[in-house]
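DATA CLASS: polypeptide
GOAL: derive structure tokens

***
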Amino acid sequence: DWKLNDRWDFNGGLRLNETYEHKRSTHIDGFDPTLDTFADETRHVTRLAGMAAMSYRAWEAGEDELVFYADYRDTFKPAAIDFGPDNTPAILEPETARSYEAGIKGRLAGGRVDYEAGLFLLDFKNLVVATTDAAGDNILQNAGGERLKGIEAEAHWHVTPDLSLAAA
């Protein structure tokens, strides 16, 4: 977190992710040896993730303020492991996401009202979803991706120290 001056604030971070996964899977049918399967799979991934954000305090008067902000995030997570009884020998692809957000936030009425409104865009890839295979078994597998975009807004009015009203 780097406060450039009274108005500008920069926040950033990097994380190096390194995962090593190894999975050995065996399925013995018991009735039909042609359905027996044996699998041994390894995946090693090294990937950088991080975030960067900037905010600008455009106005300030006592407890009240108006702040503009924007941020970018890039994340990575190895896929969940399915510990179920079904045979799923493949190691799933890691889930990744990139998000962008921009908006305003602040306080009014001597700090008794706080508010925030923002726009966002989030792109997921390799989502892990629960599905059913051809044999009717529930399995986990990677889906293509998903894009979420929208507007969020919320406000809180602190009526008394013990009572707040919220809207979102």
Notes: The chain has a mean pLDDT of 90. DSSP finds no helices and ten strands in the chain.
